[in-house]
Input
Amino acid sequence: MFNGIGASPGITLGRVKVFKQDLYQIEKRPIIDCDQEIIRLIRAFDKSKEQIQALYDKVLQEVGKDEASIFEAHLMILEDETLMTEIKEKILIEEINSEVVVECVFEKYIEQFKQIENDYFKERALDLKDVANRIIENLLGIIKTDLSNLKEEVIIVAKDLTPSDTVGLDGEHVKGFVTESGGKTSHSAIIARTLEIPAVVGVKYILKEVKDGDFIIMDGDTGKVVLNPEPEQIVLYENRKEQKLLAKKVHETYRDQSTITKDNRKVDIAANIGTLNDLDQAIENGAEGIGLFRTEFLYLDQSYLPTEEEQFQVYKQVAIKMNNQPVIIRTLDIGGDKEIPYLNMPKEMNPFLGYRAIRLCLNQVDIFLTQLKALLRASCHGNIKIMFPMISSMEELKQAKGLLDQAKKLLDIEKVPYNDDVEIGMMIEVPSAALLSDQFAKEVDFFSIGTNDLIQYTVAVDRGNENISYLYSEYNPGVLRLIHMIIKNAHCEGIWVGMCGEAASNEKLIPLLLAMGLDEFSMSSSMIPRSRYLINNLYYEEVQRLLKVLNWSEGSKIEKYLCGRELDDIK
Amino acid sequence: MTSSSVKLINEAGLHARPANLFIRLAKEFKSQITVEKDGVKVDAKGILGILTLGAACGCTITLEADGQDEKEAIEALQELVESGFNE
Output
């Protein structure tokens, strides 16, 4: 029995597939028949091309063009004649085996690319490393775990999964994943929620205990993992799974309804999206708007700043697709864990307390104005609202609003139309902003509470540090009081409040947030039907009783109480 | 042998998407094609050589083709570069 962190809901049981980044050993061998060796090399290249082509086709079809482009780059490397010639010549001259030569030639390019202070080259260096590994694995006949082409249903157990491990992941056959590292907001957790497969993260030392083919039960709600369970445990889990499936069917019926409690308090459930691909999923799951559109991907997926026109087209597309439902677009929020290499930002000791988000935009005004102009232009095409991240002082908000006015003036000069009344909001994710929310509420049209950061800054815990992850809790009464205060202050000034952090889709917290008066809950699309089902079966008057927990001093007790009853512990 | 010099006017230079477009177009021709910058000459059909040129916006590169369709090749590649890779 292991305890981890439930990162994507659902119970599943199945066979383990251990995902390892296999470390192979290469030895130098003299070669007598070089022609034969070159034939072996060409075969490995061909096989690698086939594998990558298959990955490319699959990802293109199932995920999208952007995600597929990484494999296009891999193919181009394999098709580079100069590289092939160089490897062949080295085999002929030195009369040694292909593995060693491939590694050595690739290493030369990797080093060259790493020297260049530019993110595009660093990425290509990673591509080269990937391709070299693939060729060598094919030379050695190592069958690597391929998560995109599985033959049977499995639960993946891994140290951690990187974006390239999970790109093109075969959602059909992957029933869940368990990782040793990572937290709720790690890449694997987010991917799991997107694919709607159960995940448990942060299960320390599980790799030491499991092997391929072991049977495990995993519960993505509670974070429990049971290795080689007893028959009665299996029966218990099967029953719970059955109940959950039934519940899921019920939730689906809420997909196209509006969100309203049994005693007629109307709230909105909106979606958090990060790319255009997420948009369809949001619509499919019945989002009543986009509560957070992260614009970072526009900046991260290329090697230069996105132009006003490029951005305008994207924002316009989202606005049109959402058909007059609100689309809240957050201005550039980078720094911290998200870097944009071509901006050459200095490395910082404390990136989460550093030069990021609005701080960067107010300093690099040209970048900010380009984005604001694109947003203003798109605001004619739908119900766009502009949101500033990471505001911690009134001066910043006033400066940001001033720049928005400047963007409007620039558009006036260019005689380009925009919506002059576009609503402006701000994220509240810094305690100082929460404490000043009565003042901020006079200056904006809405708030959106970013709980992921608000918790980290309020309890002073680095989100990624596993040793203290137990302190990072949305149940900390200090955090809950701040949230309550923000909502009350907003309502006093007659503005609405949303929440776009993980807490907004936490079913234990939703009743309390509803009681506090939260107006909009924004979450990963897959969580929408379930959250709507929950709210539509609550009475606003009845949940008011939960507000008493704000006077309690221990977060753990609050969490227990909000659970209502403890889920059956599997002993 | 046909050759021509051309200036990179697009923001990304001969990198990322433009590099991919350039190589794909070069591969459509049978001729041997090279790109030269500051005395370094590389195969126009290979990604690694092209990238290691480090040809940024504002650089001038020399295209050289040798083969049956050399004229068409140079013309097409020059047009792609001069159009700023349709960015």
